[in-house]
Amino acid sequence: MPVSFRFPLLILLLGLYGCVSQPSSETAPPNILFLFADDQRASTLLNPTIQTPNLDRLRAQGLHFTQAHIMGGDNGAVCAPSRAMLMTGRHLARLEPGGFVIPDEHALLGETLQAAGYDAYGIGKWHNSRHTFSRNFSGGEAIFMGGMYDPWNTPLFHYHPDGDYQDRRPVIQDAWHDNTIDTLPGEYMLSGQHASEVFADAAVAFIESRSAGDKPFFLYTAFTSPHDPRSMPAKYLAAYDSVSIELPPNFLPEHPFDNGQLIIRDEQLAATPRDPEEVRRHIREYYAMISHLDAQVGRILDALERQGLMNNTLIVFAGDNGLAVGQHGLMGKQNVYQHSVQVPLIMAGPGLPRGEQRDALCYLIDIFPTLCDLTGARMPEGVDGHSLRPVIDKETPIREQLVFQYKTFQSAIRDTAFKFIRYEVDGVETRQLFDLSRDPWEQENLLEVEFGRAAALEAALDQWIAQHGLQSRPPQ
Fold first, then answer.
1. pTM of the predicted model as reported, rounded to 2 decimal places
2. Residue-wise pLDDT tens digits, 373-393
3. 28-399 belongs to which CATH class?
4. Is it true that the peptide bond before 2 is cis, omega within 30 degrees of 0?
5. CA atoms within 13 Å, Cβ hemisphere of 92
6. 18 pLDDT exceeds 70?
7. Is 167 within 8 Å of 185 (Cβ atoms)?
8. First to last CA, the chain
9. Domain 408-476: top CATH class
């Protein structure tokens, strides 16, 4: 070969080598397995007390984003706006109020992947407008249209391409009194089977149904664990019988001031003042639910291995929001402390680092553009999230600050070290400043010590609210 051809050929080969992790028309796009937990906070992934061998295995195979967050919520059912943000990639301020309804003009993640040639299959919890499910997915099974239910008797739907998910099954309520007839939010129920196992069964069945030559798939499996009511097979609770359950360092018998949500439903799950033993019981059940969920994650991962699909499947594990369970004297998620807004996020699969972590700030809304980036799907207009690709590649952080909002009376902003929180309840303003780098449990209010830093963060918070239309005002 003449010398003049060698260097162009070398350049071409190097160019091809540098693009191996990018999808192209000549390589099959990766499958996507999305596993979504309900109320599982971020700290559960690094807690040595909680038995999660399969999530540990997934972390070892992939990339752990340690600073993933939600933006908050505008109603007590925080999971509804959180799931709407995940599926649309939109800021909290640009959702329909409550997040329950997703307008037709808001592009969806599953819809976007279908346009890129994917089969989109949905399983488990869907806490947004029912007809939207069939826009987001081309198929599905074991679909739960609700927020929470008895995990042993969860009402379910089959997939309906027309989006018709009406309450279908007549049941008797209060049978010993007036025999009131009501309808169940579903068309069938697998009584005696735990919801986590039902959802995992459906996911395994879908994976086992795949054949060579099928389209790539987006398999979304949304569990209802570890959300209450907390019940699980006895062996998972018994596994914690001999384990010393410690109270979190920021345990308090009561929240130190009125945050505007002290009598909401979640805060009634334990008596106030909080009894340490009662809180330990709640923590033990929470851990057991997570361990049972972990076992179902393992079953799904094993199915991928058996079918030879693991090497070409992007796996995402995340949670819709956190939960206090005794921290700061709270039980629920209706607040903007780290235990409630910081969520687990792991990504594993082709082209991603193995056994590494990234500490850059991010939101769940960043998953939508990231999956578009990793699969080659065209990202629609209206997505506010940023691709995590620069974070994955260790190039640059994508966010310097994060803003949080709960209803109209709690708002917060954080950077890589400090977090400022503002409450406006019944005309009373309360402010907090925490140094998360030294005080991750948010115990020491530095407002008086770091007044200048607090003022700067509050100014940035007000600027963000003014720009994006969020308002922070006392509850009406």
1. 0.92
2. 999 999 999 999 999 999 999
3. alpha beta
4. no
5. 27
6. no
7. yes
8. 80
9. alpha beta
